[in-house]
Every structure is written in structure tokens, then in C-alpha cells.
Cytochrome P450
Amino acid sequence: MLTLWLVSAFILTIFFVQRLRAPIAKLPGPWYTNFTGLILIYQEFSSNKRLYIHKLHLKYGSAVRIAPNEASFASLDAIREIYASGGSGYDKTELYDLFRQFGIKTMFSTLEKYDHSQRKRELADRYAMTNILRDEHVSAIKDRARAFVSRCVASASSVDVYVWLHCFALDGVTNFMFSPGGLRSLDSDKDFAIMEELTYHQSLQKNLLQYYFSGLAPYFPECLIPRRSPITNEYVLKMAAQQSPAPHSLVGKLARKDSPLNHAQVAAECKDHMAAGIDTTGDGLCFLMWELSQPHNMVFQEKLHQELRATASLDNGDGAAEQRTALDRLPYLDAVVKEALRCAPPIPMSFPRYVPSGGKSIEGYFLPEKTIVSCQPYTVHRLDTAVFPEAEKFNPDRWMEENRAAERNRLFFAFSTGGRGCTGRNLAMVEMKVLLREVYRRFRTTVAPDMNASMDIDDQIISSRPKGQTCRLVFTER
């Protein structure tokens, strides 16, 4: 028995010594992160990982150890190294395998940089600003923005903008992808069902079970399997097989005769973009309108209204150049959107990557290959209070100041950065600006008396949303 105890003690001693001598042990962090990642996994399943990591950064600084083989960073140098070095940064971790569609890897779920770049070449021009601002796309976005306003003002009292903003986002992204077969969920009950299927679900814990216990996943009972989306799948498969899609649409490019993608791959890519388009625009706009409608933020809403009213004539131009000029001449609108995305990024949590072969130094710390490293926008947008003073406050005016403007823009991480940054960024920004222009040029929004749902950020597996999934506002015509 004594021998057994001695052997056990010896093995434990070797374990502790190895952990404490590992390169990652030199990073600051709680002592227990040298020995176990279970605390981090617990925080993840509790929907608290983002805030847990953020609190560690507040205590330990811009570089922190969060598990025996994982570190989090929040500096510009780290962002550039992890996400932009070599053009596309480090390879993704297996977490992104969760985001296959129809069991097929998409651009987003491709782990290796080279394979990703090959897929991105097939669709990058569709998301170029010159294509986004085509008359056909802008006209569709304007039409959907007006339909959103009609829905909201039709209510005599309060209206749940969370619902209709997700309809607007769904209609916008599907018209962009599948024209002329885009959805009209703001007008159609049948299309509305697709919005509900994609929006009202819990994606965190069940997906994490698939990730951490992938070997057992085939044996999980139905209650542990992530919610399926049969209505959406049927629609996407049908639209991906369109015989005559508009040449400027996404599917028009992906499903062309000489495309290297087959029908299933086209459908998978489109479904991925469709889901991302709802989260980015719908939730981003919801957090934004909620902030603008707060009594203490009414001054910002008034500034936005004044700019939109003074530049109303700019909305009459045709063509991509004129539309871009119109949006570029609205600096306060741009500031409002950026501040909302700073406070509540569509994906506020970490973007995990593997340190490449040979290891790398980040912020002066050497990390061996296969170490998991990441930055999370929520912390990047808050930690440096010299760049973002009073970082917890919604304040679009900060983007209008010349002092430290370059640093603010470099630390704006809402859409990630580098070759693997958000492909749909231009579409999301145009959709948000067109809708806000339609609303705040003519209306004032205030928090409804019957609004009692939580607007705290609620993390899902790869995105965030208001915790209560309700945002009741009152629209008043000016």
C-alpha cells in the first residue's frame, strides 16, 4: 500500500512540475488554469464564458491563461498575429466543425487557411461593396425597410421590434442570395415560419455536448440533439436549384455552369450565410434601437435625426456610386452603428485558433504549436480605457472625435479581421444603415411601458442575442 501511495505521489509530482514548466504557465492567470480546463468548460455550459474571460482580463491584463492549453488576448498586436498574419492568421479549431450545413463543410466551417481561401474566391465578389450597392440589392433592402416601418407604426401602442428586425434581416439576406426567390417574412405568414425556426431556439448547451462528447453524439436521445430546421432546409435546397437566378445574386455565382461546387455544397454555403445574416443584422439592430430608445440616450437619437433630415435628398440617387456616396455622407449614422457593434458585437465571444507549427510568440510569450489562442470582441472593445473611456457606456460621439480615432478603428473587432473576417460585413452595414435611415428620419422611438424582458447579452454557440428575445418600443411620428 505504501508503494502505491509513493508511486501515485511521484506521478502527481511529475504532472504538476510539467504543468508549471510549460511555456503557457508563464502567462498570468488563475493558478488552477495551469492544471485543468474544467472551470472554463463549466463557464461555457453556464453561458458565462465571455464574462468569465473578460473578468480575467480586467484582473490580469491583455494576456491571460484560461486553461492548460488555452490563452486569451486583447491587444492589437495579438489580433494581428492570430487573425491576420500571413493574410488569414492561424487555422481554426475543431469547434467550427459544429457549423457544417447538411453535413458539408462551408467557408465558415473550413478549418485550414488554404481550403478557406479557395472557397472564398468563389463568392468574394458577391460581397464587394460595388455589388452590394447594385440598384437591385439596394431597392430590395429599401423595400424591406419600409415594410418594417409599416409593421411597427401599424401598432397603436408598443411593438416588439425583435420580431420584425429578424424578419427584415431574413428578407434582406435571402433577397441578396436568391433573387428573385427571396423571402418576404414581413408580409407572408409562410415565410414568417422560417424566421421563427431560425431565431427562437437555444443553440449553446446542446451544441457543446456535440463538441465535447462527439464520440457519444450518435447515441444521444432526441432531447440532447440540436434543433433541426426542416422548413428552412427545404427552402434553401429549392432555391439553390433555381434554373434562372439573377446574375448578381449569390446563388447566381455559386451555381453557375462552370462552378466547382455541386448542388449540396451550394445549398450548404447558402444556408450558412442565411443564418449568419439574421444574427448579424437582426440582433445588431435590436441592441442598437434599444440603446437609442433609452431616455438617457435620447440626445444621440436627436443628433441622428438631425443628420438624416438634413441629408434626406441624398437618398434619391441611383446606382452604386450614388448610394455609396449617400451612405458615406452620414458620419453620425456610421458612428451610431459602430458604437452599437462595439457594445454588443454579433459574435462577442472568442474566435479560437491553433498556434501553427513551430510555435509563435504573442505579446512576448512563446506558445507551442497546437496551443489554442483567441481574442474576444467584447473584451477588445472595452479593455483599453485610454482608447475607449467609459467603455460600458453607449456613446456614439466617441467615434466623431479625432483624438485616438486611428486606434479606435484598429481595435474595432466586431467582424473579426484578416482574410477570415466576416464576409458579409458590407451587406450587414448597408442593411443596418438603410433601415435606421428609414426609421429615424421620420420617427422617434422610446422604450414601451410594457417592456419588461431582459436585454442583457445572451451568448449562443457562435452568436449573441437579447436574453429575453423581446424588445418592445413605441414609434412616434415626428
User: Anything to note?
Assistant: The chain has a mean pLDDT of 92. Residues 22-477 form a domain with the Cytochrome p450 fold (CATH 1.10.630.10). The chain is about 50% helix and 10% strand. The chain has one domain: 22-477.
